[in-house]
Amino acid sequence: MKPWKSALRRLLEPRRSNSFSARSEEDYALLPSTTLDSRSAVRDADNKRRRSIARSCLQMITLRRLIFALVSMPMFLAVMVLLSGVPPSYEDVRAFERRLPQHSPELGVREKNEGMYLRFGGQLWGHGLNNILQEIIMMSHLAYLSNRSYVFEDYTWSRLPFPYTIYDFALRPTHIPINAFISGPSAGGPLESHRAVSVEHWDAVCPRSKRRIISIADAPTSATADGKAVMEWWVNRLSEVKEACVEIDQDSLHRPMFDKFFFGSSRILSLWPSLSTSPILTDFAWSPLVQSAVTRNFALLQPYSAKLISDPSSTGTLPGLVAVHLRRGDFERHCPRLSGWESSYMGFNEFPTLPDRFDPFTNFTNPEAQLDYYMEHCLPTVEQIVERLRKVRAEHGGLKRVYLLTNAWGWWLNGLKEALSKDGWDDATSSLDVLLDSEQQYVGMAVDMAIAGKAEVFVGNGFSSLSSNVVMLRMARGLDASSNRFL
């Protein structure tokens, strides 16, 4: 026998008992003749059998096997991670960003003297796309109003000095260029003046010695001030600064200019007249990578015209399609917290013209009734979803198909799809049915949002930043407010 086979056999074979006859005696006890003695003997035999099994299990747990298991576990996990595949590098998208006209050397030399830049130190990272997208839109809008070039950065999941990190037992890119997700002025797209530039370009034309750092210490806090007042204060403050390279410091006070309280409050709505006419929104577009994924799945979406899918500038919708955002996963913990905080819907989910309202200050008879109210709108059951969509279908004639934007498990979705089919829907598909290549996979959330933006009706989760951004973009496109509904 080969040495390695012999060693493996010694590791895996159970140790032999030194007393086979004793073990046999325990396993095959004789039954006494009397009834009481019989019951006692049976109990004794059972106890002996259990002790025998326990000893056998203990004999199996040897030091060698324990060491082998400890050594093998990291190897097993490493194999699982590698089997998930190596994520793409998006080097083609990075090359595209570097070749943007505002990054050309000739223009760069001129802009060293004439360019006006605005960078925000401490931009959000390690969060979902929509938390970061909210911030990007506000910051680039401020730069536009201030006649400065917004400095855009990568979508950053981790600040590890490696191209990949591990998440959910799979490799994940630590950085993805923002142009893999979006196009338009916020990502360096066409603008009449002061096109946005990459942080790489900023570092080249704005060395540290030339940067003017502005603190947010004296600024009105977005947690309490009106959105319009916050924006106007910063526009006035920046108009007083003559230096070309300006960086707003958000790190020293650990307080972002636009925080979760700002985006989660109706105070942001005072900005809508300015924001809705800004090229930041009017010229916003999903990236070609995202658009290609939507086009690839045209058969799933069943458009009456391919132009609705293939032409990013098309303002039409997909007739008969209702897109529904069903946030699961972490919302199972988050929704009860929202009830305890008496939270309202996200800011852009509270447009006065939207048909569905949510009142966190309803006079509930008891805490359980309040929790039920929140859970119905935040984490509805299959039955509640089916009933809600039935009502939406009754109010919007012609709806026949359902697209589910969700992070739910497949088995749960199968049950929901079956229930929707029984309720009369022609078709129900979900995020799991969309075909994506390796690059599109990591921008899948944006693909879902692009589909939701094209749906005839969108039914969102009022507490979600994703739903808030979809509603904002649909409103900016001029779609009727009544086409935006909530669970």
Automatic annotation (TrEMBL):
Q: Which UniProt keywords apply?
A: Carbohydrate metabolism, Endoplasmic reticulum, Fucose metabolism, Membrane, Transferase, Transmembrane, Transmembrane helix
Annotated transmembrane regions: 66-86
Gene Ontology CC: one annotated term: endoplasmic reticulum
Instruction: Please provide, alphabetically and separated by semicolons, the GO molecular function terms listed in this UniProt record.
Output: peptide-O-fucosyltransferase activity
Q: Which CDD domains match?
A: O-FucT_like
Name the Gene Ontology biological process terms: fucose metabolic process
Q: What is its main location?
A: endoplasmic reticulum
The biological pathway it contributes to is: Protein modification; protein glycosylation
- Residues annotated as signal peptide: none
Q: Where does the record say this protein resides?
A: Endoplasmic reticulum
Q: Which family does it belong to?
A: Belongs to the glycosyltransferase 68 family.
User: What PANTHER family does the database record attribute to this sequence?
Assistant: GDP-FUCOSE PROTEIN O-FUCOSYLTRANSFERASE 2
Q: What is this protein called?
A: GDP-fucose protein O-fucosyltransferase 2
Question: Which species is this UniProt entry from?
Answer: Jaapia argillacea MUCL 33604
